[in-house]
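User: I'm preparing a small set of examples for a lab meeting where we compare how different chains pack in three dimensions. I only have the primary sequence for this one, and I'd like the structure in token form so I can line it up with the others. Please keep the answer compact; I'll paste it straight into my notes.
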Amino acid sequence: MGRISLIVIIALLGVGFSSLMVVNEGERAIVSRFGKVAKDIVDGEEVTRVFGPGLHFKIPMIDKPRYLDARIQTLDGAADRFVTSEKKDLMVDSYVKWRIKDFETYYLATNGGVKENAERLLQDKINNDLRTEFGRRTIREIVSGKRDELQTDALENASESASNLGVEVVDVRVKQINLPSNVSNSIFQRMRAERQAVAREHRAQGREQAEIIRATIDADVTIKIAEAERKALTVRGEGDASAAKIYADAFNKDAEFYGFLRSLEAYKESFSGSGDIMVLEPDSDFFKYMKTMEGK
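Assistant: Understood. Below is the structure token output for the 296-residue chain.
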């Protein structure tokens, strides 16, 4: 008897716990009963019952709660291609801030409140709205200060188009606008070719200026060398003339003594090396001051 009572108590506790439903802060819950959404009668009309945060009761094994996030969500999808009014392609990366506004509509439109379905449907609507806004503007208008205007218009259109999903679009932002990779590559190649042409022109001008500077310097060096050689020849000629005059004056004063000094200088220069050899006749005038003791 006691064992049966224990089983009954455990069963009652299990039923009691299964009849409780806890909805956390920031969530809402919708209960489906026999495959249909549970509704309440308000003013004679059926209204889907949405459970707020707290502890609620449900029918065990029959009611199946679906918890929905009521906070602001961020939808950051992949970049998509848009066409401007000039028929130019752009790769646009954007994000959307959204939250559930009508939980019943959201639950039914997303096949039971599946977030992935909601994001896919919302992304399609946002892209269509952005495609319309980009198609009305040129690239210059898009990348200029009118981007805020584009985002504001896109937000208004998205708020209207997303209403049938039970979703409120809080914000639409364009993060980045790029050209498609094939267009970017062609533009970069053209820019690179233009920069290379400018670089070649600058190099050619530099080489021309270098040749002019080099020729000017070479001419200056040649002129200075010629001037230095001219001055050197002038000084050397003046020195030779002075030396010749000094020799002539010395010779005129005492020719014999002058010859003696010149012979001594010749001896000094001739016998300065240890291995010098001279082949001369014995009666040569070169040794005339070495032949006598008298000094003549």
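A couple of notes for your slides: Helices lie at 2-18, 103-109, 115-135, 139-143, 147-161, 181-253, 255-270. The chain has seven helices and twelve strands.

User: Perfect, thanks.
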